[in-house]
């Protein structure tokens, strides 16, 4: 038999699904948020286009064609025109999507690595563990994120990997605070006390019972962090601290587009619009996930 039973109410009331699984409840709520659905589809599309860039890009993104400089969109053979060096804008956007994907994966992975485990220790054990680790996180949070990333890149060297490691270090304290708060909220629960009373090792309690309760707020934070990672990578590449020429990235395209600004605005407008839409999609998706995993209110029943 199905684990979902349906009860009806008088006319005018909404049908309620009793015993609905968390996954089905999340999907139902998420589908009711069209903005989040559109954002998710847009981000998946960017990821697919970026991964398929070597197969679908119409031109080599680094080959210069000086006889075709600063062409407008819809020019013959160049759907989105060319930049100041005659390189195809569409091809560079597609390859820039690959950089954006790498930036998000590397930075979020580093942030999770240095933020989640200390948060589990601080939140579950409390005491001086919590005091020391929380003060370290607060110290990192006191620095402006982009300025801290620039300082780290200046020490480690200017390339994409170092830039994203720097962004990941910036993410770490933010993941720490989210996970620590979730752990503190669940550590005194009855099922945790029951596990302690039967002698379950602390590491197993944290892994099997505490960590799953941190996933919902952590997933929301990850989606928001991806948007910040895209923006930070673009900013660092724009300043010359991220992706280096001739490799294509959205931030590099903005920096290089300034040279053609007096002749045409397209080399700046197109990558800027893509960055804005991608960051907006990440934030919208994060808001949709947050609302979908929250407690069900009366109006949704």
In the sheet with the most strands, the strands line up as 1-2
Largest sheet: 2 strands, antiparallel
- SS elements, strand count: 2
From the helix content, strand content and strand pairing, which structural class follows? mainly alpha
Give the overall shape, derived from the CA principal axes.
elongated
Order of helices and strands: EEHHHHHHHHHHHH
Low-confidence stretches: 1-16, 296-301
- The fraction of residues in strands falls at under 5%
Could you tell me the mean pLDDT?
Answer: 85
* Radius of gyration (Å): 24 Å
- Quote the distance from N terminus to C terminus: 23 Å
By DSSP (H or I, 4+ residues per run), the number of helices equals 12
Helix fraction, binned, reads 55-70%
Report what the structure shows.
The chain is mainly α. 66% of the residues lie in helices and 2% in strands. The protein has a two-stranded antiparallel ribbon with strand order 1-2. It is built from 12 helices and 2 strands; from the N terminus they run E-E-H-H-H-H-H-H-H-H-H-H-H-H. The longest helix has 37 residues, at 89-125. Helix 8 (190-197) packs antiparallel against helix 9 (202-210). A hairpin with an 8-residue loop joins strand 1 (5-7) and strand 2. The protein has helices at 22-31, 34-51, 53-56, 89-125, 127-141, 145-156, 160-186, 190-197, 202-210, 215-238, 250-257, 266-293; strands spanning 5-7, 16-18. The two termini are 23 Å apart.
